[in-house]
Amino acid sequence: MAQRMILSVEDVHQYFGRFAALSGVSLQVPEGRLTALIGPNGAGKTTLYNVVSGRYRPTSGKVIFQGRDVTGLPAHRLCAMGLGRSFQITNVFSQLTVLENVLVPLVIKGGGAFCFWRPLKRDRALEQTAMKVLAMVGLAEKAHVGVHQLPYGDKRLVEIAIALAPAPRMVLLDEPTAGMNPEETEHMIQLIKSLAETSGTTFFITEHDMKVVFSVADYIYVLHQGTLLAQGTPEEIRADQRVKEAYLGGSLEP
Ligand SMILES: Nc1ncnc2c1ncn2[C@@H]1O[C@H](COP(=O)(O)OP(=O)(O)OP(=O)(O)O)[C@@H](O)[C@H]1O
């Protein structure tokens, strides 16, 4: 049976002045799978994420999400359509508790307003949803702890919980293990695997750590200097000579 594609990027070009950060990139992300986007520093991964998540309108080309042309739609519209993105640690409200952080996107999704200086309106149904998400990422026991008190690895888990809370159809995870120690990285690998298998959500991740990529991804796209260099299963990418050369001096082998 043909796989349904939740996301298609079609011939996307992104210029910054005269510099082409993306030159004719096309790729597809199948629904319910974990697809990774990798590439050496400066390859264009973040730029492509910014195009897909509505932060940039590409110079040319299209982004199709769930069959609709969403090119250039603002991030909040894409979010309402089911496209989630993990936010960097600086975007987590560190003075709020873990639970409150996860409630924020739920309150906003429900049409409520969030004011940082006013306590979140207590809503049992929303709290139950938030607690379920916290249980999924293994943070239920720390629900009432202030985020500023958490170790780094747990803060990254809060980011993932925030991205998952509104039950998106697809989540973009930007380097989920960046800055983690080996133990935290291993925990994150297991978590991403289990979320990908059980949540029904499609994951599209960028990651520098090849150990993580090769152990979690179903399919991998490799960007190099703004163009697509290779695509394939982890085994195919691991064996691809062009990818090895692009990473020369880097760490393709886990
Ligand atoms: N806003 C911008 N203005 C000008 N050039 C930019 C801008 N954003 C990115 N670039 C350039 O585009 C190229 C791709 O950058 P991008 O951040 O997308 O790469 P990346 O693959 O995410 O790199 P890294 O792995 O180091 O984060 C780089 O040469 C970068 O300097």
From TrEMBL:
<keyword id="KW-0067">ATP-binding</keyword>
<dbReference type="InterPro" id="IPR027417">
    <property type="entry name" value="P-loop_NTPase"/>
</dbReference>
<dbReference type="InterPro" id="IPR032823">
    <property type="entry name" value="BCA_ABC_TP_C"/>
</dbReference>
<keyword id="KW-0813">Transport</keyword>
<dbReference type="Pfam" id="PF12399">
    <property type="entry name" value="BCA_ABC_TP_C"/>
</dbReference>
<dbReference type="Pfam" id="PF00005">
    <property type="entry name" value="ABC_tran"/>
</dbReference>
<dbReference type="InterPro" id="IPR003439">
    <property type="entry name" value="ABC_transporter-like_ATP-bd"/>
</dbReference>
<dbReference type="GO" id="GO:0005524">
    <property type="term" value="F:ATP binding"/>
</dbReference>
<feature type="domain" description="ABC transporter">
    <location>
        <begin position="7"/>
        <end position="250"/>
    </location>
</feature>
<keyword id="KW-0547">Nucleotide-binding</keyword>
<dbReference type="GO" id="GO:0016887">
    <property type="term" value="F:ATP hydrolysis activity"/>
</dbReference>
<protein>
    <submittedName>
        <fullName>Amino acid/amide ABC transporter ATP-binding protein 1 (HAAT family)</fullName>
    </submittedName>
</protein>
<dbReference type="InterPro" id="IPR051120">
    <property type="entry name" value="ABC_AA/LPS_Transport"/>
</dbReference>
<dbReference type="GO" id="GO:0005886">
    <property type="term" value="C:plasma membrane"/>
</dbReference>
<dbReference type="InterPro" id="IPR003593">
    <property type="entry name" value="AAA+_ATPase"/>
</dbReference>
